[in-house]
Amino acid sequence: MDESRRSPVGPIPHPNDAGRNEVFRALEASLGSTFSSEPIVPNPNPLIIVVSGPSGVGKDAVIKRLREVREDLHFVVTATSRPKREGEIDGKDYFFVSKDEFLSMIDKNELLEYALVYGDYKGIPKQQIREYMAKGCDIVLRVDIQGAATLRRILRNSAVFVFLVAESEEALVKRLIGRKTESIEALVMRVASAKEELRHLKEFDYVVVNKEGELESSVKVMESIIDAEKAKVQQRRAVI
Ligand SMILES: Nc1ncnc2c1ncn2[C@@H]1O[C@H](COP(=O)(O)OP(=O)(O)OP(=O)(O)O)[C@@H](O)[C@H]1O
Fold this sequence. Notes:
InterPro entries: GK/Ca_channel_bsu, Guanylate_kin-like_dom, Guanylate_kinase, Guanylate_kinase_CS, P-loop_NTPase. Residues 46-227 form the Guanylate kinase-like domain. One of its GO terms (cellular component) is cytosol. By secondary structure, the protein is an alpha/beta fold. The protein has a domain at 48-76 and 136-230: Rossmann fold (3-Layer(aba) Sandwich). Helix content is 39%, strand content 17%. It has helices at 20-31, 59-69, 99-107, 126-134, 145-155, 169-179, 184-197, 215-230; strands at residues 48-52, 73-75, 79-80, 95-96, 111-117, 120-125, 138-142, 160-165, 206-209. The strands form 2 sheets. Strands 2-7-1-8-9 form a 5-stranded parallel β-sheet, sandwiched between helices. It starts with 19 loop residues before the first helix and ends in a 10-residue tail after the last helix. It binds adenosine-5'-triphosphate (ATP). Residues 53, 55-61, 175, 179, 210-215 line the site of adenosine-5'-triphosphate (ATP).
């Protein structure tokens, strides 16, 4: 510092010879300004994390575990016009609405993204995202590959896009068979589209390999991605 601008102060005692507060105050006096206790960087922005990947890769399993280990994470519940299946809970699995209600949500621009899938509407309510982002929560959206492409067009780089893959096609197909939830027709269709879906990998920011029996490692990588995004100098800023 320019000597002429420095306020006249006594010598700064060495930390060996004086208490911490005394040295602190002497340093402030020597600089002619006080040290602020305000955070040096503001809190990171709430993040929108879009998780996608082929059917059966483990999106639900990874997200479920991630929600258990990470606080302040809101998983957005999709609205759908399809009838509720046995065991499904309204507001937890989906928000079940009538077709007319869904069409009204489209009209009122209340959906971030929607699609007609096999005759039923599915869409992401904006209000839920706004509400939880305002509380400082990070948002997780689970969408199929088409949904991810639509969200990329809407959100561009304001959200982080994660593609989940299995370690091999073989592992993916075996996992899907093991889940025992699909009819043979659905199984064939899902396996066939998985091959094509892998071509969309390059449209994502991160890829996480969800290896057989290593769900915990995949969740750790997801956490690392979130941590790295929080530490970015140029933060993503999603406005919904
Ligand atoms: N790392 C893993 N190792 C072994 N099994 C796994 C792993 N990850 C997920 N699974 C299992 O694989 C099956 C498919 O996972 P999950 O239902 O989460 O996939 P998904 O991507 O959400 O599928 P979909 O898009 O069809 O809903 C489930 O039975 C799940 O428990």
